[in-house]
Amino acid sequence: MVPRRAEASAPAKLILVGEHAVVHGYPALVLPFAGVRAFAELAERPGPAQLAAWGWQGALEAVPEQLAGFAECVRATLARLGEAPEGFVLRLSSEIAPGSGLGASAALAVAVVRALYAAFAQEPTHDDLTALAAVAERHAHGNPSGVDVAGVLASGPIRFVRDTTPQPLDPGGALHLVVADTGRPSATRKAVAALQQRLELEDEGVRSQLVRLGELADEACGALLAGDRRRLGQTLDQAQTSLAALALSDDALDALVTAARTHGALGAKLTGGGCGGCMLALAENAAHQDDLVRALEAAGARQVWRHTVIQERIPS
Ligand code: PMV
Predict the structure, then answer these.
(1) What is the rounded distance in angstroms from the CA atom of residue 211 to the CA atom of residue 27?
(2) For 200-250, what is each residue's pLDDT tens digit?
(3) How far is ligand 1, taken at its centre, from the CA of residue 146, in Å?
(4) How far is the CA of 88 from the centre of ligand 1 (A)?
């Protein structure tokens, strides 16, 4: 079938509690973050399929290393659709900086799969999206937990445990978050591999922090459901202590976390892979969210976003 023109996008994600521990089977609390998005646009073009991104354009077989996972994802998606890799160029673009800890590769992979399905007039299921985006994620991360794709695909906060169906959480009150980027890219793949190595050496200090992060993720889920902002904030702070003990924070993240706390944040921590990338803070309300934005900008954040999670009660 000749593909038709198609466009798709996907949001970023925010891990509130549980990054890294989630790789090892502990729970995490994650939500979609539509403040920044990734895009894939497919146009008809005769000849072998091409990818285009970041100033590069060429055949799937000739992609540079940074696009190799997406080329694999395109091939896997076409195979599932029963279509040949020809007749189009797929242009990728993103507002989500790579290494920001916001799930840049997962969002782009989901946008790629959605655009291809749309181009061949098909609708992917949640399972299709999860499995096919994971092809690109394995390339980007080595050993992804799947939390990024789950967060990107979610419609609100979820409790995620590796290889299980995510559990949607209905927040018991609005959450006013602020997200700030240090501007220094985090190296998720390297950080995940370093922790894995320490676990293989039976580093009990590492194991106990991962257990703790899993417990904190469940406490955070409970606080979110109960609408207990104060308790949720405490779990963020406690998670930051554990992540710092695992050497996943750095000076730039610490400076932004300190600035948020000095200005009354209920809690603040790094989010995502760490050692660079973004942090997040929980504000009291919308006005306090504005104060925190200003404080984080003054503390040197490269970019700051507000993100409000609205209380969604399902009518009984
Ligand atoms: O840095 P990001 O946005 O890719 O988030 C990584 C989250 C980790 O828990 C560190 C890795 C994973 O696959 O769960």
Answers:
(1) 10
(2) 998 899 999 999 999 999 999 999 999 999 999 999 999 999 999 999 999
(3) 8
(4) 31
Give pLDDT tens digits for 279-296. 999 999 999 999 999 999
Question: Ligand 1: residues within 6 Å at CB?
Answer: 19-20, 22-23, 101-103, 141, 144-145, 147-148, 186, 188, 192, 272-273
Residue that is written with structure tokens 């969210």 in the block: 289
